């Protein structure tokens, strides 16, 4: 219910400690699998369309960039570029580390939630608790732009936001999210669908369209061409991945 991302800085610190704890678990329990047949260092199959949306989703933070930019003390181009590079770089390092160690430990049949692979212990139970804390404290970072977008769609331009409307939108988002959470049992399924639709739109389609719209009257230079290519690429990714995930669900 807080109105600024800056209000989430303390909970975000706790979430970061939860991430560190999860990394420690994966590193501590790392043991190379003995059956080499379970490890495929390179393979090409249609299942990539099921995993690619999750990859796209993991790096989708564009929806918060305007709020972050507006709340930075130094929001110069150099500063915001440093923030973006540090955020994406650290995320990529953590993702790759956990993914590689988890895969080498359990092989190609590793669960989408690698923490569930480990034997029960207080140490692992703490990791599961850390994951809960991570999700709980990360949720407001997604609810904040969702509420802002919903307010723009439903509200009138330059109209003052009412307190009732603010709390009503937030409560509705919370209830709908809870319904999805208790309905879906497989984490990779929901991430695949979100990655195929929302993340692809935010990461590829809209940035390309915005750039094209801004430079619509300009000559066709490399930047404008790449913007169109990016949008088309996003549409193709959405079509292929969404179709694959729907077929995967209906076939079970």
List its salient traits.
single chain, 252 residues, 8 helices, 71% helix, 0% strand, globular, L-histidine transmembrane transporter activity, L-serine transmembrane transporter activity
Can you give me a brief rundown of this structure?
The protein is mainly alpha-helical and 252 residues long. Helix content is 71%, strand content 0%.
Summarize the structure in words.
It is found in: Vacuole membrane. Its main location: membrane. This is Amino acid transporter transmembrane domain-containing protein. Keywords: Amino-acid transport, Membrane, Transmembrane, Transmembrane helix, Transport, Vacuole. The protein contains eight helices and no strands. The model has no long low-confidence stretch (mean pLDDT 83). The chain has 252 residues and is mainly alpha-helical. The two termini are 39 Å apart. The protein has helices at residues 9-28, 48-58, 65-71, 77-106, 122-154, 163-183, 187-214, 222-250. It is globular and about 60 Å long. Helix 2 packs across helix 8.
What are the low-pLDDT stretches, counting only 5+ consecutive residues below 50?
Answer: none
Number of strand elements: 0
Mean pLDDT comes to: 83
Structural class: mainly alpha
Major sheet size, sense and barrel closure: none
Radius of gyration: 20 Å
* Portion in strands: under 5%
Distance between the termini: 39 Å
Helical residues, percent: over 70%
Helix run count: 8
Strand/helix succession: HHHHHHHH
Shape: globular
């Amino acid at each position: 219910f807080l109105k600024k991302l800056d209000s989430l800085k303390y909970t975000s610190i706790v979430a970061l400690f939860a991430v560190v704890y999860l990394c420690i678990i994966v590193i501590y329990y790392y043991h190379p699998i003995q059956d080499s047949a379970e490890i495929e260092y390179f393979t090409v199959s249609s299942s990539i369309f099921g995993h690619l949306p999750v990859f796209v989703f993991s790096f989708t933070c564009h929806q918060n960039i305007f709020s972050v930019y507006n709340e930075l003390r130094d929001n110069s181009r150099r500063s915001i570029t440093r923030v973006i590079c540090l955020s994406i770089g650290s995320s990529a390092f953590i993702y790759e580390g956990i993914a590689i160690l988890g895969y080498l430990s359990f092989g190609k049949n590793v669960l989408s939630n690698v923490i569930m692979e480990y034997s029960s212990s207080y140490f692992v139970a703490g990791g599961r608790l850390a994951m809960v804390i991570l999700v709980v404290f990360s949720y407001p970072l997604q609810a904040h732009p969702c509420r802002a977008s919903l307010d723009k769609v439903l509200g009138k331009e330059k109209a003052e936001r009412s307190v009732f409307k603010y709390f009503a939108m937030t409560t509705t988002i919370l209830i709908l999210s809870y319904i999805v959470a208790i309905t879906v049992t497989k984490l990779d399924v929901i991430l695949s669908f979100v990655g195929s639709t929302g993340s692809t739109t935010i990461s590829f389609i809209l940035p390309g369209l915005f750039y094209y719209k801004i430079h619509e009257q300009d000559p066709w230079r490399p930047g404008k061409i790449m913007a169109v290519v990016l949008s088309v690429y996003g549409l193709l990714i959405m079509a292929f991945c969404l179709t694959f995930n729907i077929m995967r669900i209906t076939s079970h």
